Amino acid sequence: MSSKARTQSCSSCGDRLLVPYHARTIRCTRCRSLSSVHSFFPSLVFPKVLMNNNSYNSYSSSQRYNYDRITTQQSSIRGMEGDWPDSFPKVTGKKRALLIGISYSSKRYELKGTVNDVNCMKYFLVNHFKFPDDSFLILTEEEKDPHRIPTRRNILKAMQWLISGVSSGNSLFFHFSGHGSQRPCLGGDENDGFDETLCPLDYETEGMIVDDDINNILVRPLPTGVRLHAIVDSCHSGTVLDLPYLCKLSRTGSFQWEDQSNSSNTYKGTSGGLAISFSGCGDHQTSADTAALSNDVTTGAMTFCFIQAVISEPGLTYGRILSAMRTAIRDAGMGAPFSGPIAALFKKVFKCGIDQEPQLASSEKFDIHRMPFIL
């Protein structure tokens, strides 16, 4: 066991919990109850700063601790720029992609289809959008290189690699298949009061990756003429890039962009580039990991639907892709007939009672029925 963590029992169910270094409280992954951490670590002294124009000292000790941790994590992210491991690709072309699949092997929350998602996505990008073989950085538990294991630090480093040195004409692609979650937002920049998160392989000890961090790394630095497409197949992923606009699409095809900035005045856009994300579900929904394809190959429902939608009708608009994914899931839930692999997917998804509706978000508003999907 790491010297930076120890265990204690959950105060409700008694399950053993791995407690990160300096944690004040910890939430049980089984019963979701919150337990106070026994005082066995010396306290840290953090700088007193302002939160949302309110005095730092006016917040509870748990709020101050959470904010301190966020601030510390953001500082560590800024210090990770450049100096890439030798195993990271040295991309010279216009296209590059970061693909992450996390199985959480041997955990009770293990996923079966995430590595398949990554393999399918790479094949899709190479064969349908001509991404060069040397333009991919792939992080999974099957990688032999320690820098390509999807730990929190490695994922953040890989995100920095994805946007490093980009210029007008670059096309960037980010794909994540794994667990996602939420946590209360202390910054006041979320309409629903929750930050969305991605769960690295070591999130129990090192923490989750918060949407604010993803926005800081992947979205805000994008310069004019650079496009980023993100495909996020995880639970609670609707606004996981913290993009300014979320598309609200009706069944009749009418749409409007919902402003996500509320009253916080926190800028969530780019530096002139364009960032667009397709995500597996809304912020308060879950995504399916299911045996869907022939020969019982397990894959993420959203990843499979996205690839199928684009391949079936080349030259699709963003609106058509989103509508096709949603309609397929909705019709399957109502018992509409399907044939082939898509039928197997939806029968198994809805047999498990999965409720998900893919989402589209963007750094700027556009006509989703006119703008073609181009990588």
UniProtKB/TrEMBL annotation:
Organism: Dioscorea cayennensis subsp. rotundata
Single GO MF descriptor: cysteine-type endopeptidase activity
Superkingdom assignment: Eukaryota
Family: Belongs to the peptidase C14B family.
Record-level GO cellular component terms: cytoplasm
Protein's gene: LOC120261728
GO biological process: proteolysis
Peptidase C14 caspase domain span: 94-362
Protein name per its UniProtKB record: Metacaspase-1-like
